[in-house]
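ok so dumb question maybe but i'm new to this and my supervisor (M.) told me to 'just get the structure for Glycosyl transferase CAP10 domain-containing protein' and walked off. so i did the thing. is this what she meant?? sequence i used:
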Amino acid sequence: MGVLSRKPVQSPYFVPRFILILGFFSLAILLLFEVDNFVSQTKTIAGHNLKPTPWHPFPLKTFSEESKYALASKIFQCSYLTCGGSTADNLPHKNWSLSADQAGTCPEFFRWIHHDLEPWSQSRISLNHLMEAKKHAALRVVIIGGKLYVDLYYACTQSRAMFTLWGLLQLLRRYPGMVPDVDMMFECMDKPKLNKTLHYMPVPLFRYCTTPNHYDIPFPDWSFWGWPEINIGPWNEEFQSIKQGSRARSWSNKWPLAYWKGNPNVVSPIRVELLQCNHSRQWRAQILRQDWDAEAKGGFEQSKLSSQCNYRYKIYAEGYAWSVSLKYILACGSLPLIITPEYEDFFSRGLFPKENYWPIPPSNLCRSIRSAVDWGNAHLTEAEAIGSRAQEFMESLSMDRVYDYMYHLIVEYSKLLDFTPVRPSSADEVCVDSLLCFAEDKQREFLGRSTAFPSSDPPCRLQPPNKDLIKVRSKRRGKSSRTLKF
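this is what came out, is it supposed to look like this??
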């Protein structure tokens, strides 16, 4: 009698091998899809997945991560694993009640804060105002309880967004617990957009410059915390370096010429015309092109700002719009020759012709430059005094005052909001650690050098609004330029 064969008894949990393989393969595909989806859709303050502003296109930034997995890991870590529950780095809140009355008065140009916000003094600022501003903004900044939240719409060129947000984070560190809840729209390109004649409703948009004909609200630019792409350090360092460099030659031994070095290829007719003035004998000027690509390869040895103060006269010419070079030119102690500007930044409203700069009309440019140089060389004492006052003005614009301006501007703006700021669902928290996490090595170095600490003194006292005084000062600036005689 034969032995009957018996089939092995299968466990009710038995899964055929091919199903396991299929399941593993499906999970792998799903994981690949999710990683690709995460990497291609998550926007970051470093510029990932952000298109340039349509009103001012520029080349997209490239990133050095070796793979999508490395990029996904970095984005996930920096976005979700760094901030935790910190509020202004858990810094203790300062009680200024005893010392606030002893705070000094803010510089006079701080009065322009009231002027810049005057369009909303009656209507106040509603969510409708903010949504209209969103159409022209690159990012939205919301501060709630000392935490910073950012909603990204477009990329900013180079590291402007990162360093602007760093400045706001340092403000929260400098005055912990004092910055009010606020909701602001920011644009990070140069030229103001909100012309008062073209917008039926005042639109509140923060940017780095404005004009009398625009609603754009001027805010301290990113370079106060450094500009790593062209090796310009934080303002407190750069000013001291420039001031020291200005002492290398006495006034009588400085080159008796007007000097300008910059990039004319920025859609700037005035800079293109300025190139025609490059003749030391005919026009008393030395005009040089700045090639930043070549400078980067050479370690920026030929573009140190501190080495450009050996001339008695420094020319300021606007670029595509306003230029950050203004503060470095004024810091030199040379006589600033400012070609009549169209744009204003937050501090330039404190400048007056023949007091801390010499105005140059754009008509007959080369001849005007020569006339200014000839006057200065014939009046050495007066020319040196104007240059010294320009340097003193910039020395008074310390980072303490920059933070005070930011503080008062945000406080006064927040008073105009007719709604309670809330975190937008699409906004991410940005803290010191998350921003440093996204920063490249050189950026991280510059950011570290501009770190702020809790202030031992309260902010300066902001003067009350005074429309008549603003009008008088505006007329004084314009009148001095029109009546200028050599």
